[in-house]
Design goal:
Layout lengths: L1 H19 L1 H16 L11 H4 L4 E7 L4 E8 L17 E6 L5 E3 L1 E4 L4 E7 L5 E7 L8 E6 L5 E14 L2 E11 L6 E12 L18 E2 L2 E2 L3 H4 L17 E7 L5 E7 L3 E7 L5 E7 L2 E10 L1 H18 L20 E16 L3
Parallel strand pairs: 1-19
Antiparallel strand pairs: 1-2, 2-6, 3-4, 3-7, 5-6, 7-8, 9-10, 10-15, 11-12, 11-14, 11-18, 13-15, 16-17, 18-19
């Protein structure tokens, strides 16, 4: 009887394996589990990766009217580097040039060893500027970039609706912003940010709020406005775990006519759980009184493309629930013979105070 039983189960097992390839799956599973417990090491220097890597100079500078010139420089490094000193390659010389007047201003070291340079010139609205640096230690070609400061659009009317939307038990504040485009501008690129600062000194339970929690911080922003949601970088509803961005970007054809844009910001708040003497739990949600500083930046095309491509790359890497990780995205750069960004903006802002009742 014992042999019959074994024979029966053996035949049944073979039929199942033949139909569903269980043996193959079982072997793959065992191999996977085994490989997860094994440590494999290899010498990256033997792969030939380093010999193919060519370092590039890096320039980073965002500027607006009234600013003095500040430029951070460095050099790219391969992904396996353990030495950060390669990021501090010093240029031989450099200058900032106004393309309107032809005046050139030498770039001077701001903080030695930190790759920071400055020029005492103040940028003017509508001005076009070019930067030139030479890094002879890593390449013969000079590094150049050019951008023009846009004329600032301004904030008109502001309408606020606290607790306008519930997202994951957080009550968001809706902002309706009227934008007054600059004269002679029919098309513009924009950036919006909201910086909040808690003005309460104690929590709802009567405890003092830590100073770190009262420091100004950029709020998470979201929107239902097609002006913003149609942008490629804006996370889709399929990206369930994706944090919303802290800055919103959009472009608008307006022909000098005022328009409105709507978005939400997540106000500073706290969730608390209290337990009564009989063991009952009570969950409460509290929005702190705070100041909110809304900044509207009118930005250049290069500024817009750089930041939008960075966000697009980030959300593409995060992927979504249906399609997984997205296609690779290269971050935009307007630096010739290098990488990074040299881009201009002009801003307007408004600050309001929200007192929680």
């Amino acid at each position: 009887m014992h042999k019959v039983t074994n024979s029966y189960w053996k035949k049944t097992w073979n039929r199942v394996c033949a139909r569903f390839h269980v043996k193959t799956v079982f072997l793959l599973l065992c191999t996977g589990l085994y490989s997860c417990t094994e440590r494999t090491e290899f010498d990256v220097s033997q792969t030939g990766i380093f010999s193919k890597f060519v370092p590039q100079p890096v320039l980073l500078s965002l500027f607006s009217p009234g600013d003095s010139c500040r430029i951070a420089t460095g050099v790219t490094a391969h992904a396996f580097t353990l030495n950060n000193s390669v990021n501090n390659v010093i240029p031989d010389f450099g200058y900032l040039e106004s393309l309107e007047t032809g005046e050139r201003h030498e770039l001077k070291i701001d903080k030695e060893g930190k790759g920071l340079y400055y020029s005492p010139v103040n940028f003017t609205k509508g001005g076009a500027y070019s930067v030139f640096l030479r890094f002879s230690s890593i390449q013969t070609e000079p590094v150049e970039a050019t951008d023009t400061i846009p004329f600032a659009s301004t904030i008109g009317k502001l309408n606020l609706t606290p607790k306008a939307k519930n997202v994951n038990d957080n009550l968001l504040t809706r902002v309706r912003l009227e934008v007054l485009p600059a004269d002679l501008r029919s098309f513009s690129f924009y950036e919006i940010s909201v910086q909040t600062e808690v003005t309460d000194s104690v929590s709802p339970e009567g405890f003092y709020i830590d100073e770190n929690l009262r420091m100004p911080s950029f709020a998470y922003l979201s929107s239902d406005d097609p002006l913003i949601t149609k942008e490629d970088y804006y996370p889709s509803i399929l990206q369930l775990d994706a944090f919303p961005p802290r800055k919103l970007y959009f472009k608008k054809t307006h022909y000098n006519e005022a328009f409105a844009v709507e978005f939400y910001y997540d106000p500073p708040s706290v969730h608390t759980t209290t337990v009564s003497e009989n063991g009952e739990q009570k969950n409460t949600y509290h929005i702190f009184s705070h100041r909110a500083h809304i900044e509207l930046r009118t930005v250049s095309s290069s500024y817009y493309r750089y930041h939008v491509s960075r966000l697009t790359q980030f959300y593409s890497r995060e992927g979504d629930a249906l399609y997984g990780a997205g296609s690779p995205v290269n971050v935009y750069s307007n630096i010739v013979n290098g990488t990074g960004i040299f881009a201009a903006f002009a801003s307007d802002s408004i600050t309001f105070r929200y007192d929680y009742p």
